[in-house]
Amino acid sequence: MKKTLTILGMSALILLGTACNSDDDGIDNDISNNPYKKIELTRTEQEMVGANNDFAFNFFNQLSTLEGEKNMMVSPLSLAQALSMLANGADGNTKKELMNVLGFGAYSVEEMNAYYMNLNKGLLSADKTSKISLANSFWVNNRYKAKFDYKKVLKNIYNAEVKELAFNNKTYKQINQWAERNTNGCIKEFVSENEINSETVMALLNAIYFKAFWASEFIENDNLRSDFTTPDGDVDVEYMTKNTIAFGYKDENCKLLRLYYGNKAFNMVLLLPNEDKTLDQVLQGINGEKWQEMTNQITVLKNAEIQLPKFKGKYSYKENLKQALKNMGIIDAFSQSDANFSKIMDNPIFVNLIKQNTSMAIDEKGTEASAVTIDDGAASLGGAVGWEEIFEFKATRPFFYIIEESSTDAILFMGKVTNPNE
User: What does the longest C-alpha to C-alpha distance in the chain come to?
Assistant: First the structure.
């Protein structure tokens, strides 16, 4: 009988001045000593960003359909890297399905590995005023033997910790400690004894932690309380507000607003459907290519009125995550009879559990005023272009957001807010 392999992903997104733990994470808020530096990718690797962003939208829309009208936040980057580590141990149709769903069907595993190695290196050094950490680990029950070449790839390419130990009823606590440590205390109770125990063969883990300050902060004294229209009716929420120049875009379906962090290496793009559209209607028409087309048209606006609710949440995805990946085309990996992970170990194994936990929070805090010109290397207040009329971005109804790296457009996080109070 085939044994089980567990895939675990976790991410913590902190876009505010207060972290889950009270330390400062070693963040240097002096932007003058931290110039924006683009991540250098090859042409092939930049194409792979686009393919991976297609995966991100496909995954989000599949999961959103299953989750319904709930708040959501996922890290497609965390999930993709966990699945990529898994693909390195797959063969035959199992490998083919994983590569195709990731968007890498036209590329080799070696090209995929080089892409993630270069992207991760660039992400970690992009902005000292933001804190980003990427961690991987491979836990093996020492009753079984993982192949040397597979462990070597995980160590050398994905910088993964390899832990070979006796699995027992305490192992899940060790994994939870690893999760807490690598998300700065944001994710603690990640797995239970029922999920990780002496019968588990191995577990692949990926963790992403991201804390960033707005390049141009919201002022708490400018906050207001007003209604937010949820699918179940209006609720009273606290809004951050600002009148400023900004980066935006609008069409017949929605508006986009881009807000930068730190030295502008990372940014958030928010999507607000027009009042005659629902959020799901708009998102179903967007893939990675369409998103790129829309964000390429973002321009500098002279007069923007921004109203954005404060929100935070913790989310967990397991059964719906597994079903979403099946709907996307990953079938054999979950099949006890068809899974082929012969490059991981000689024992027959299949994926029994795949899980992602996320945590996030957003409020007014940001860096000080040295970045308020929102220049992006091209425009200042005197040279701003765009619509002459006021550009209103008032997120008083369900909206969508993405956190991305600015030079590559690689998506780190994506989510939707249908009720800021939940």
Answer: 70
